[in-house]
Amino acid sequence: MYTELGLFIGGKWTNGANRKSEPVINPANEKPLADLPHASKGDLDEAVEAAKKGFEVWRKTSAWDRGRVMRKAADLMRERVDAIGKILTQEQGKTLAEAKGEVLAAADVIEWMGEEGKRAYGRIIPSRLPGTRQMVMQEPVGICAAFTPWNFPAITPARKIAGALGAGCSLILKASEETPGTAVEMARAFADAGLPAGVLNLVFGIPGEISEHLIAKPEIRKISFTGSIPVGKHLVKLAADTMKRVTMELGGHSPVIVFDDVDPEKTADAAAAGKYRNAGQVCVSPTRFYVQENSYNKFAARFTEKAKGLKLGDGLDKDTRMGPLANARRLDAMNAIVADCQSRGGKLATGGKRHGNQGYFFEPTVVTDLPDDSKIMTQEPFGPVAPIIPFKTFDEVVARANSLPFGLAAYAFTNNAKQAAAIGDALEAGMVGVNTYAISMAETPFGGIKESGYGHEGSIEGLEAYMTKKYIAQA
After folding, report:
1. In the annotation, is 115 catalytic?
2. What does the domain layout of the chain look like in residue ranges?
3. What does the pLDDT read at residue 16?
């Protein structure tokens, strides 16, 4: 049911012969799925040379023809969604329904950006000098390198692949070594769609070694990274040495503000569904729940009821509603968070411990009565632990929601139109959902502020991130 893994360089697949490798582990049972070959420095240099050749072909390919190839790749992913979804679930753990939904969303991103490449418009600036034409042209930035994490093995690579290829760039993608099969299948879809050799290259290995080697290459003119804030800051420093353009999509800690003019139980149903999606391993996951006092008890009780009712299990089981965490590190992190909550006087409404003794399962957890300076209120949990805290006034909760150095996503729920506008304006985040958790689509910009990074993926901003502007004055 899994897939054959390999490196994809210059349009050719390379297996693990005479290369270092590592096992890919199924987080539901801790059993190995396959061995993943690592790229050597020679492989990386070959990928750069392949990307140079690919770029020369792709940049001269019309936006219409680029769009056709990208749409074909997206269609192949849709045709193969059942197979790719099973691969994704086996290596990452999320439910099969979530995995298939992610693959389809990734296909949408690829198709949308292929279409948007046709609209990479320049402009004419009226000249003050007779006989002079002033033009602004959009051009692909060049060879790009992208680095993606394990929590969304399809959608995160898709955003980077789609932006780069839609703009006319070539790309070297280092996808996560823990969830490589999905990226391998995406690369196969592009190859089968007729993408010229070298336009998309896929490598794996020790993350720090690969990023440092590729970012030092002067041929690479843009990098895009999704991951933790410390690693993002390190890569920005590396990129500065050769003045590479950078897109950083880093961590978050999304506040959810629930005002007392909404139905607390209906709002809790949506909140629990959003929180426990992918076991909370989502960068825009709702993670700090502030509920106005009059609604607090009903909201907390209903949210806890929903958490208790979630069936844990292998994501391939149709009855499973929450799969395992992706790796053993997340189990350790959840245990540390719960221990800190308890040491700070927090009350466990449900959960709080590992589920079973095989697989990386952790119970859906709800914690109440926490101070604002506790670990879970100040650090991104990235797991199925939800703190629920009461608040009194608008100004108070805005100050608490904006108090952290993160600014990726934020959410608020109110039936008051004036209050909805006010909270949308007041929250400091790159993406704000008012009465909705649906903030990530192919046609909308995805990105954060403050230490959550800068730059955007998706929408026209995601295309422009891979383009440069050239001004031409012609007399």
Report:
1. no
2. 7-250+450-474, 254-434
3. 77
Fold of domain 254-434: Aldehyde Dehydrogenase; Chain A, domain 2 (3.40.309)
Q: What is the 3-state secondary structure (H, E, C) of 28-77?
A: CCCEEEEEEECCCHHHHHHHHHHHHHHHHHHCCCCHHHHHHHHHHHHHHH
Catalytic residue among 185, 249, 380, 457: 249
Kind of pairing between the strands at 409-413 and 170-174? unpaired
pLDDT tens, position by position, 158-188: 999 999 999 999 999 999 999 999 999 999 9
Give domain 7-250+450-474's CATH number out of 2.60.120.10, 3.40.605.10, 3.40.50.300, 3.30.457.10: 3.40.605.10
In one-letter notation, the amino acid at residue 264 is P
Q: pLDDT at position 18, please?
A: 84
Residues 95-112: tens digit of each pLDDT: 999 999 999 999 999 999
Which of these is catalytic: 283, 341, 457, 464? 283
Q: Is the pLDDT of residue 411 over 90?
A: yes
- What is the rounded distance in angstroms from the CA atom of residue 148 to the CA atom of residue 229? 13
**Catalytic residue list contains 56:** no
Task: Report the predicted TM-score, pTM, of the whole model to 2 decimal places.
Answer: 0.96
User: 291 pLDDT exceeds 80?
Assistant: yes
Mean pLDDT of the region 301-324: 98
The pLDDT of residue 25 is above 80:
yes
Interval 424-429 mean pLDDT: 98
Establish how many alpha carbons lie within 13 A of residue 115's alpha carbon, considering only the half-sphere containing its beta carbon: 12
